[in-house]
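Hi C.,

You asked whether I'd gotten around to modeling the 633-residue construct. I have! Everything is below, sequence then structure, no commentary in between.
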Amino acid sequence: MIMAARVACQANFSKYFSLVKAIKRRGSRAAVGWESKMRIAIMGTYRCGSSAVAKSISQLGVHLGAPFFGDYFESDSLSALLRQWWNEPEFRETVARDERITQLRHWIEDYEESLAPLETDGISAYTNEEKETEKQSHDGSEIVCGAKHPLLSLSASDIEAAWGKGVRYIWVRRELKDTIESLKRLNWWQDCERIQSELYEAAERFVLSRTNDGTTFIVDFDQLQADPLAVIGRVSDFLGLRSSKEKIESACRHIRRSTSQRTEIAGNRQRPTFVDQVRIAATMISGNSESMVKDAIETVIDYVDEVVLIDTGISDATERLISEVAGDRLRVTKRVWDNDFAGMRNAALIEAQASGCNWSLTIDTDERVNWGGCGPDQLRRRLLESEKAKTFMVAAQDGSYAKERLIRVPTSLHWAGRTHEALIGAAADERPVLPGVTFWELPKSTSQMEHKLKRDLTILREEVCDKPNNARWWYFLGQTLAALGQHEGAVEALDRCANLRQWSEQSAWASFMAAKSLSELGRFGEAVERCGMGLACDPEYPELAWMAAWCEYRAGRLRNAIAWSQMSIAIGHAEGTCEGADRVGFRNLVGWYEGPLDVLRFAFRRQGRNSEADRVESRYQVAKAIRIKKYGA
């Protein structure tokens, strides 16, 4: 066992330590002292001096989860969560408290684990130099972590529930009128008075409710500027940091400079005026779509500066209806339809850039965007601050997949594929999912769906002839044939896709789809074989074991159905090892959660094991509720 771990470590060092950290995390909250461990939360309004305090205590050895760019000592990941929860700057609660607490707990666990030296079998993830630096920065004591952000004022009560009773709260208090005037000068938002007042009152309310328990400390902004050594010294004592006088003096040097000038410059560099820096063009490809196009544009018009319409042969009222919504923001380019969606989308990206915009928002005529808690200003800020992102994915409302929705222009990315087009060229960390935002499509009538499928079928048959070694086209050909009820052809195409083994996730899902078509044909044994082949491609697909269980059940092989169900549950998302994992595509959410429990309860009942079936029934209801809560019905 030890030798196997060593071999795995040598073969893939980073994956080995990721596994170690995952194992540690399972027991981290059960460890003695986790709930009482000291953690720091720094809160206040915007422009109150909290960044100055954060910088000082970070130099005294406190980790705040921040990249420390400029003078904004805030964690990017935590900032994103807070803005989503409170719909900044509206400060409207968009995420339930229980979910906020869970996410806060995961954030602090992940951050603390990222700082803890990993040592196993004599192998360390830290160099000797890094370990020595870590030891010196904390005077040999336990690593202290925390966070600073104005929106923590709204989540102060969540923090204790998430991080335990050892949290120490620092409220940096500045005269409200001064913070309002300072925020106005940055021109971030119109409603500065309300924003600052709500944050001030929330922090004040929380601190006043905790004045007698020794967990809160108020830093007065005027005192901080007048005598930073004394104030930061008291903060150090409050936190028990045992900092020397020399260390405190070093940590206070930046405060002696003009705070307003320093933060003003940092603010202008990091967060320029949104309108000047972020311009968004909605791009749409359309023929005759008068029955649906207006609602599509209305769902995005408040978020965009331009609307680019690629006219592929409009002869009805489509353009007029778009113009009624977009007004002088509408730009129309005519192109002859040539059965090439990728070509049209690439042309739209060029037009978006030509319109003077630096982001393109793709919207189809039958799509509607649900922005959730993400307002126009919040979206622009996210785009402005996400320097690495080349595109943002947006999830479908039913959670089945996600697609590229916002694309930075000019771009090195390009669309490929005459149908089922894909955006090519972005690495995984360059295409994050935009949190809290979803989209949905209007349901198509039977005739509309048949027309689309037959159009796609013609293109896909040409693609597999031209590119027989491209698994992608075999997959979509199989999917289209299955949707048309041509399951024999679907199985053949999906097998070709899986056997090419070009992408493990795609091969696994092609096997799932082939099994589904085989089950429609009543060929249950072959369907189970495909499920096994798919699991060999990627063992983290509970849907495959669920499909095998369902096929065995339909074939009357109940013992096999029970075994496959239990395997699916073991690698599933409700009770199994994949809990918390995510895939943006190639997924069946019922298979992730309650599906295998559904098969299991019926298999038990058919065997007469009613008490066991009753117990599984309650687990089934819990798993289903988890799915609905997370992804909707």
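If it helps when you're writing up: Confidence is low (pLDDT under 50) at residues 1-32, 118-140, 257-275.

Thanks,
B.
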